[in-house]
Amino acid sequence: MVRSNKPTTPEDFPTQSPLPSGDYSYTVEIVMKMQQTMGTLVEAVNGLKEDSREYRAELKTIGKDIHGAKVGIKWAIGLCLGFGGIIGWAINAYITATHK
User: Fold this and answer.
1) 94 — phi, psi (to 5°)?
2) Is the N or C terminus of the chain more exposed, i.e. has fewer CB atoms within 10 Å?
3) What span, in angstroms and rounded, lies between the C-alpha atoms of 30 and 47?
């Protein structure tokens, strides 16, 4: 094994260039565009929430209307069956009475 007399630690370290101290208008422009886009997104989400509330209310109304229609149809069928039974009984009574 050969040993060298050279130092093992580097004497010159890499240097980093200093941060630019120039114009930041491009960065400000990007941040402002992002803020504008976020505002647009927030507005769109709020609009969707409002539409969702309106649609839910409309669906509840439609649900109540459908329920009312189903109840009305059941009543109509019941009344038709009742009147049909009465008419059938009357016809049966008439036929029985006239054929004796």
Assistant:
1) -65, -45
2) N
3) 26
Task: Report which of 45, 70, 50 is spatially closest to residue 58, judged by C-alpha positions.
Answer: 50
**Dihedrals φ, ψ of 72, to 5°?**
-60, -40
Instruction: For residue 87, give the amino acid letter.
Output: I
Residues in the chain: 100
pTM score = 0.46
State pLDDT tens for residues 34-69.
999 999 999 999 999 999 999 999 999 999 999 999
Distance separating alpha carbons of residues 80 and 86, to the nearest angstrom? 10
Measure the CA–CA gap between 89 and 100, rounded to whole angstroms.
Answer: 17
Instruction: Specify the residue for token string 């094994």.
Output: 1
**Which residue has tokens 């009312």?**
68
Tokens of 100: 């004796």
